Amino acid sequence: MTEVRNHDLARRMAELARAAASPRSVGEVLSDVTETAKELIPGVDTAGVLLVGKNGKYESLAGTSDLPHTLDDLQMTFGEGPCVQAAMDDLIVRTDDFRSEERWPKYSPAVVELGVLSGLSVKLYTADRTAGALNMFSFEANSFDGEDETIATVLAAHAAAAILASRQGEQLQSALTTRDRIGQAKGIIMERYDIDDVAAFEMLRRLSQDSNVRLTDIAQRVIETRGGNDNRGAE
C-alpha cells in the first residue's frame, strides 16, 4: 500500500511541476495542491490554504469546498486553531479528534458542530510579512497518520514554492515600475532644464530629501506636472 501511495505521490508531483512551469496563477496552482491532497490522502474530505499577514489580515484560498473558508474565518475570529498555529509556529499540527481537543477551547467545539472531527495542518512558509499553512479536514476521527503527514509536507512545499515565486514576481514588477517612473521623470527634467541625467537624478533626490517624500512619489509628481502643462498648452 505504501509503495502504491509513493508512486501516486511521485506521479502527481511530476504533474504539478509540469503545470507550474506553464503560465498559471497562484490560485490555480494552490487549487491543484488542495485537490491533490484529497486524491492522495484518503482521510481528506476538504482542504484549503490559509495565509496570515502580520497585520492580522488573512486570505483563505483554494478551498475544495466552502467549508475550509468557514473554518479559517472561525480561527481568525477566535484567534486560535490548528491552521493559524501551523502557519505561525509549528511545522505540523494534527488533531485526531476535535471532540476531545483542548488546545483551542473556542474553535474545537465550533468545528465539531460543523461535522469536522479531525484535521491536519502543515506550514507552507513563514516570511517577514506573511505566513501560510496547507489545511486538511475529515468528517471522521483519527483520519490522519504519519504517512499522511509526509505526503502533506511534500504538497505544502510545492504550494510554498508557487506562492513565494509569485511574491518575488510582484516585487520585481514593482521594482521595474519604480525604475521606469524615475526614468520618465528624469527625462522630463532633462528636457525642461537642459541638464544631463546625473543632474536630473540629483534634483529628484534633493526634492525627495527636502520634502521627506519617497523618490518614486516625487517622480510621479513630476510626470503629472508635465501632463498638466501639456493640457494647459492645448487649451
Automatic annotation (TrEMBL):
Molecular functions per Gene Ontology: kinase activity; RNA binding
Keyword terms, alphabetized: Kinase, Transcription, Transcription regulation, Transferase
SMART domains: ANTAR
PROSITE patterns: ANTAR
Database matches in InterPro entries: ANTAR, CheY-like_superfamily, GAF, GAF-like_dom_sf, GAF_ANTAR, WH-like_DNA-bd_sf
Family matches, as Pfam families: ANTAR, GAF_2
Domain called ANTAR: residue spans: 162-223
Protein name: ANTAR domain-containing protein
